[in-house]
Please model this.
Amino acid sequence: MPSFRPSSDLDMHYRVDDFTDPWRDRQTILMLHGNAESGLAWYAWVPKLARSYRVVRPDMRGFGESTAMPREYPWTLDRLVEDFCLLMDHLGFARFHLVGAKIGGTIARAFAARRPERLITLTVVGTPPPLRAGAAERVPELIREFETRGVEYWARQNMGSRLGSAFPPEGFEWWTKFMGRTAVSTQLGFMGTIACADIRSDLAKITCPTMVITTEESGLGTVEETRAWQQQIADSELLVLPGNSYHVAATHADRAAEATLDFLARRGQENAA
Model:
Protein backbone atom coordinates (compact mmCIF):
# COMPACT_ATOMS: atom_id res chain seq x y z
CA MET A 1 0.00 0.00 0.00
CA PRO A 2 1.58 3.34 -1.01
CA SER A 3 2.17 6.16 1.44
CA PHE A 4 2.64 9.92 1.26
CA ARG A 5 4.02 12.47 3.75
CA PRO A 6 1.79 15.57 3.83
CA SER A 7 3.63 16.74 6.95
CA SER A 8 6.70 15.74 8.92
CA ASP A 9 4.65 13.89 11.54
CA LEU A 10 2.55 11.76 9.19
CA ASP A 11 2.99 8.85 6.81
CA MET A 12 -0.45 8.69 5.20
CA HIS A 13 -1.26 5.33 3.66
CA TYR A 14 -3.79 5.12 0.86
CA ARG A 15 -5.23 2.86 -1.82
CA VAL A 16 -6.17 3.72 -5.40
CA ASP A 17 -8.69 1.39 -7.08
CA ASP A 18 -9.25 1.90 -10.80
CA PHE A 19 -10.97 -0.70 -12.98
CA THR A 20 -12.26 1.74 -15.57
CA ASP A 21 -11.71 1.23 -19.30
CA PRO A 22 -8.20 2.63 -19.88
CA TRP A 23 -9.18 4.49 -23.05
CA ARG A 24 -11.90 6.54 -21.33
CA ASP A 25 -11.62 9.72 -19.32
CA ARG A 26 -12.68 9.09 -15.74
CA GLN A 27 -13.34 11.20 -12.71
CA THR A 28 -11.97 10.52 -9.24
CA ILE A 29 -13.72 9.86 -5.92
CA LEU A 30 -12.02 10.56 -2.58
CA MET A 31 -13.55 8.47 0.23
CA LEU A 32 -13.26 9.46 3.90
CA HIS A 33 -13.82 6.76 6.51
CA GLY A 34 -15.28 7.07 9.99
CA ASN A 35 -13.82 7.14 13.49
CA ALA A 36 -11.58 4.20 14.48
CA GLU A 37 -11.60 2.85 10.92
CA SER A 38 -9.43 2.99 7.80
CA GLY A 39 -9.88 3.01 4.04
CA LEU A 40 -10.64 -0.71 4.29
CA ALA A 41 -14.08 0.25 5.63
CA TRP A 42 -15.15 0.91 2.02
CA TYR A 43 -14.53 -2.70 0.91
CA ALA A 44 -18.11 -3.26 -0.30
CA TRP A 45 -18.25 0.00 -2.26
CA VAL A 46 -15.12 -0.46 -4.34
CA PRO A 47 -16.40 -3.16 -6.75
CA LYS A 48 -19.32 -0.91 -7.65
CA LEU A 49 -17.55 2.47 -7.85
CA ALA A 50 -14.17 1.54 -9.29
CA ARG A 51 -15.57 0.25 -12.59
CA SER A 52 -16.68 3.78 -13.46
CA TYR A 53 -14.44 6.01 -11.30
CA ARG A 54 -10.92 6.14 -9.96
CA VAL A 55 -11.33 5.60 -6.19
CA VAL A 56 -8.87 6.97 -3.61
CA ARG A 57 -9.16 5.55 -0.08
CA PRO A 58 -6.75 7.10 2.42
CA ASP A 59 -6.24 6.08 6.02
CA MET A 60 -6.87 9.32 7.88
CA ARG A 61 -4.14 10.78 10.09
CA GLY A 62 -3.93 8.60 13.21
CA PHE A 63 -5.90 5.65 11.83
CA GLY A 64 -5.33 2.40 9.97
CA GLU A 65 -1.80 2.09 8.58
CA SER A 66 -1.20 5.85 8.80
CA THR A 67 0.89 7.21 11.67
CA ALA A 68 -0.82 7.09 15.07
CA MET A 69 -1.11 10.51 16.68
CA PRO A 70 0.12 11.24 20.22
CA ARG A 71 -2.39 12.07 22.92
CA GLU A 72 -1.46 15.76 22.88
CA TYR A 73 -1.72 16.17 19.10
CA PRO A 74 -3.60 19.44 18.28
CA TRP A 75 -6.40 18.08 16.08
CA THR A 76 -8.24 20.50 13.78
CA LEU A 77 -10.61 20.03 10.86
CA ASP A 78 -8.46 22.35 8.76
CA ARG A 79 -5.42 20.13 9.28
CA LEU A 80 -7.35 17.05 8.15
CA VAL A 81 -8.72 18.85 5.10
CA GLU A 82 -5.21 19.99 4.24
CA ASP A 83 -3.89 16.42 4.55
CA PHE A 84 -6.39 15.23 1.98
CA CYS A 85 -5.82 18.18 -0.35
CA LEU A 86 -2.08 17.54 -0.30
CA LEU A 87 -2.65 13.86 -1.03
CA MET A 88 -4.82 14.68 -4.03
CA ASP A 89 -2.23 17.23 -5.22
CA HIS A 90 0.40 14.49 -4.92
CA LEU A 91 -1.75 12.17 -7.03
CA GLY A 92 -2.45 14.91 -9.57
CA PHE A 93 -6.22 15.25 -9.06
CA ALA A 94 -7.33 18.89 -8.98
CA ARG A 95 -11.08 18.25 -8.67
CA PHE A 96 -12.96 15.19 -7.52
CA HIS A 97 -16.08 13.80 -5.91
CA LEU A 98 -16.02 13.47 -2.11
CA VAL A 99 -17.78 10.72 -0.14
CA GLY A 100 -17.69 10.56 3.67
CA ALA A 101 -19.22 8.21 6.23
CA LYS A 102 -19.99 8.98 9.88
CA ILE A 103 -17.33 11.37 11.21
CA GLY A 104 -15.83 11.26 7.72
CA GLY A 105 -19.03 13.02 6.68
CA THR A 106 -18.37 15.77 9.20
CA ILE A 107 -14.88 16.25 7.78
CA ALA A 108 -16.29 16.08 4.25
CA ARG A 109 -18.82 18.84 4.93
CA ALA A 110 -16.08 21.05 6.36
CA PHE A 111 -13.95 20.22 3.31
CA ALA A 112 -16.74 21.20 0.92
CA ALA A 113 -17.30 24.52 2.71
CA ARG A 114 -13.65 25.46 3.08
CA ARG A 115 -12.20 24.17 -0.21
CA PRO A 116 -15.13 24.42 -2.65
CA GLU A 117 -12.87 24.75 -5.68
CA ARG A 118 -11.73 21.13 -5.25
CA LEU A 119 -15.10 19.37 -5.30
CA ILE A 120 -17.47 18.25 -8.03
CA THR A 121 -20.04 16.68 -5.69
CA LEU A 122 -20.38 15.74 -2.03
CA THR A 123 -22.05 12.61 -0.59
CA VAL A 124 -22.34 12.01 3.15
CA VAL A 125 -23.58 8.68 4.48
CA GLY A 126 -24.84 8.11 8.01
CA THR A 127 -23.17 11.22 9.37
CA PRO A 128 -23.70 13.12 12.64
CA PRO A 129 -25.58 16.43 12.85
CA PRO A 130 -23.39 19.53 12.48
CA LEU A 131 -23.25 19.81 16.28
CA ARG A 132 -23.78 16.63 18.26
CA ALA A 133 -25.59 17.50 21.49
CA GLY A 134 -23.83 16.25 24.60
CA ALA A 135 -20.73 14.98 22.77
CA ALA A 136 -18.31 17.43 24.35
CA GLU A 137 -19.74 16.82 27.80
CA ARG A 138 -19.12 13.07 27.49
CA VAL A 139 -15.45 13.43 26.55
CA PRO A 140 -13.95 13.09 30.08
CA GLU A 141 -15.91 9.87 30.63
CA LEU A 142 -14.85 8.50 27.24
CA ILE A 143 -11.20 9.31 27.89
CA ARG A 144 -11.30 7.38 31.16
CA GLU A 145 -12.93 4.47 29.32
CA PHE A 146 -10.27 4.44 26.60
CA GLU A 147 -7.48 4.63 29.16
CA THR A 148 -8.81 1.77 31.27
CA ARG A 149 -10.58 -0.51 28.79
CA GLY A 150 -9.28 0.35 25.33
CA VAL A 151 -10.82 1.08 21.95
CA GLU A 152 -12.33 -2.36 21.32
CA TYR A 153 -14.42 -2.17 24.49
CA TRP A 154 -15.77 1.24 23.45
CA ALA A 155 -16.56 -0.03 19.95
CA ARG A 156 -18.39 -3.06 21.31
CA GLN A 157 -20.56 -0.96 23.62
CA ASN A 158 -22.00 1.16 20.80
CA MET A 159 -21.91 -1.36 17.96
CA GLY A 160 -25.59 -2.25 18.31
CA SER A 161 -26.70 1.29 17.53
CA ARG A 162 -23.99 1.63 14.90
CA LEU A 163 -24.98 -1.47 12.91
CA GLY A 164 -28.65 -1.77 13.85
CA SER A 165 -30.78 -4.82 14.54
CA ALA A 166 -30.53 -6.57 11.15
CA PHE A 167 -26.74 -6.87 10.81
CA PRO A 168 -25.32 -10.42 11.18
CA PRO A 169 -23.50 -11.30 14.42
CA GLU A 170 -20.37 -12.22 12.49
CA GLY A 171 -20.34 -8.73 10.99
CA PHE A 172 -20.86 -7.19 14.41
CA GLU A 173 -17.75 -9.00 15.65
CA TRP A 174 -15.69 -8.10 12.58
CA TRP A 175 -16.41 -4.40 12.90
CA THR A 176 -15.68 -4.48 16.64
CA LYS A 177 -12.26 -6.05 16.09
CA PHE A 178 -11.54 -3.80 13.11
CA MET A 179 -12.23 -0.61 15.06
CA GLY A 180 -10.45 -1.98 18.13
CA ARG A 181 -7.10 -1.90 16.33
CA THR A 182 -7.03 1.92 16.55
CA ALA A 183 -4.31 3.40 18.75
CA VAL A 184 -5.60 4.66 22.11
CA SER A 185 -3.40 7.75 21.81
CA THR A 186 -5.21 8.76 18.61
CA GLN A 187 -8.63 8.33 20.16
CA LEU A 188 -7.78 10.32 23.28
CA GLY A 189 -7.16 13.45 21.22
CA PHE A 190 -9.65 12.82 18.43
CA MET A 191 -12.70 12.34 20.66
CA GLY A 192 -12.36 15.71 22.35
CA THR A 193 -11.90 17.65 19.12
CA ILE A 194 -12.98 16.23 15.76
CA ALA A 195 -15.65 13.88 17.15
CA CYS A 196 -17.48 16.80 18.75
CA ALA A 197 -16.64 19.51 16.20
CA ASP A 198 -19.18 22.25 15.46
CA ILE A 199 -19.63 22.70 11.70
CA ARG A 200 -22.96 24.54 11.77
CA SER A 201 -21.47 27.61 10.09
CA ASP A 202 -20.05 25.47 7.26
CA LEU A 203 -23.37 24.21 5.90
CA ALA A 204 -24.44 27.39 4.12
CA LYS A 205 -21.02 27.61 2.47
CA ILE A 206 -21.36 24.28 0.67
CA THR A 207 -22.04 25.04 -2.98
CA CYS A 208 -21.51 21.75 -4.81
CA PRO A 209 -24.36 19.28 -5.43
CA THR A 210 -24.77 17.26 -2.24
CA MET A 211 -26.54 14.05 -1.28
CA VAL A 212 -27.22 13.04 2.34
CA ILE A 213 -28.07 9.40 3.10
CA THR A 214 -29.60 8.22 6.39
CA THR A 215 -31.96 5.54 7.72
CA GLU A 216 -35.49 5.78 9.05
CA GLU A 217 -34.41 5.28 12.67
CA SER A 218 -30.76 6.37 12.80
CA GLY A 219 -29.30 6.81 16.25
CA LEU A 220 -27.63 10.00 15.02
CA GLY A 221 -30.94 11.80 14.53
CA THR A 222 -34.48 11.45 13.29
CA VAL A 223 -35.31 11.94 9.63
CA GLU A 224 -36.81 15.33 10.50
CA GLU A 225 -33.65 16.39 12.36
CA THR A 226 -31.45 15.25 9.50
CA ARG A 227 -33.64 17.02 6.94
CA ALA A 228 -33.41 20.24 8.97
CA TRP A 229 -29.63 20.49 8.56
CA GLN A 230 -29.59 18.94 5.07
CA GLN A 231 -31.84 21.73 3.81
CA GLN A 232 -29.30 24.30 4.97
CA ILE A 233 -27.10 23.04 2.11
CA ALA A 234 -28.47 24.89 -0.89
CA ASP A 235 -28.14 22.27 -3.63
CA SER A 236 -28.81 19.09 -1.67
CA GLU A 237 -31.07 16.08 -1.55
CA LEU A 238 -31.92 13.53 1.13
CA LEU A 239 -32.20 9.77 0.71
CA VAL A 240 -33.82 7.80 3.56
CA LEU A 241 -33.26 4.03 3.61
CA PRO A 242 -35.17 1.52 5.74
CA GLY A 243 -33.58 0.37 9.00
CA ASN A 244 -32.23 1.56 12.32
CA SER A 245 -28.45 1.65 11.84
CA TYR A 246 -26.32 4.77 11.63
CA HIS A 247 -23.27 3.19 9.99
CA VAL A 248 -25.23 3.24 6.75
CA ALA A 249 -22.13 2.84 4.57
CA ALA A 250 -21.65 -0.62 6.12
CA THR A 251 -25.20 -1.84 6.70
CA HIS A 252 -26.59 -0.56 3.38
CA ALA A 253 -23.39 -0.67 1.34
CA ASP A 254 -24.90 -1.91 -1.93
CA ARG A 255 -27.93 0.38 -1.86
CA ALA A 256 -25.93 3.42 -0.77
CA ALA A 257 -23.19 2.83 -3.35
CA GLU A 258 -25.77 2.43 -6.11
CA ALA A 259 -27.50 5.64 -5.01
CA THR A 260 -24.16 7.41 -5.02
CA LEU A 261 -23.40 6.22 -8.54
CA ASP A 262 -26.80 7.45 -9.67
CA PHE A 263 -26.24 10.82 -7.99
CA LEU A 264 -22.80 11.24 -9.55
CA ALA A 265 -24.19 10.35 -12.98
CA ARG A 266 -27.03 12.87 -12.59
CA ARG A 267 -25.13 15.74 -11.03
CA GLY A 268 -21.44 15.10 -11.62
CA GLN A 269 -21.11 16.26 -15.20
CA GLU A 270 -22.80 19.64 -14.76
CA ASN A 271 -20.28 20.71 -12.11
CA ALA A 272 -17.19 19.03 -13.54
CA ALA A 273 -15.92 21.81 -15.77
Notes: Residues 139 and 192 are 6 Å apart (CA to CA). The longest strand covers residues 10-17. Residues 139-163 form the longest helix (25 residues).
